[in-house]
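Review this chain:
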Amino acid sequence: MIYWTPTTGSHEVLDLPLMIWALKGYEKSKWGYPTGTPQLARDAPVVVEQQFSGGHMNVFEEFETSGETEIGNKTVANLVIDLLKQHGVEVPGEAQSAASSNDPLRRSASKCPIPDSTQPQYGTITIPPSYDYWACIDGFRDWPHAGYHDYCTKSPDQFPAPGKNAEFSGACARHDQCMEASDTRGQGYGACNNQLFREMDTVCTSVYPKSDARRGGCTKFRNTYWAAVTGRHVRNL
């Protein structure tokens, strides 16, 4: 979207800044008019910053400060919920959670059941056999490093769509393990975040054919989920 005014000139608004700006009321929001160029994240092709007449929008900060809501066994950023609802997308609940699958496989490495991630909705991005999932246990968030054992932190694990959901839990499980390994090596998470984006994209393009209208919704919320998941670690790249 290109927005023009006589005083601020012409500026493009894209991706997450556009979604958040629209949610808040466009130029009537606290942001006012766009005055700067969209800025990409350092570790993925996702627009995460832009200057407006009312201030600087940082998408990561918007997710982090929006508050959280308990949905099933997930704690989801309120901004993610608001953006899903704005676009008429049902917010995934407990019944749709990967950990609540009707046909789980319990693996010795995991404290909670792990579903069969070879199913088509995972888009070839499977949950590693060594992944330890904790989110079925009450109080697990008080445990050290709980965020490495809950699939997509602060975000749903699925993109809900009519007929078939896209499962991101495999991509998020791999991201969790990548971050743990990076901690051990004393490295940042930039490569892990880039891997998460690529694997979430693979899920969308594998689950929904190019001609399927659901692919566009999946890739749009791929960016939303990615920003919510990675935002809490944005200073450790």
Remarks:
- Confidence is low (pLDDT under 50) at residues 94-104.
- Helices lie at 15-24, 59-64, 78-86, 169-185, 190-207, 214-230.
- The chain is about 30% helix and 15% strand.
- Residues 205 and 215 are 7 Å apart (CA to CA).
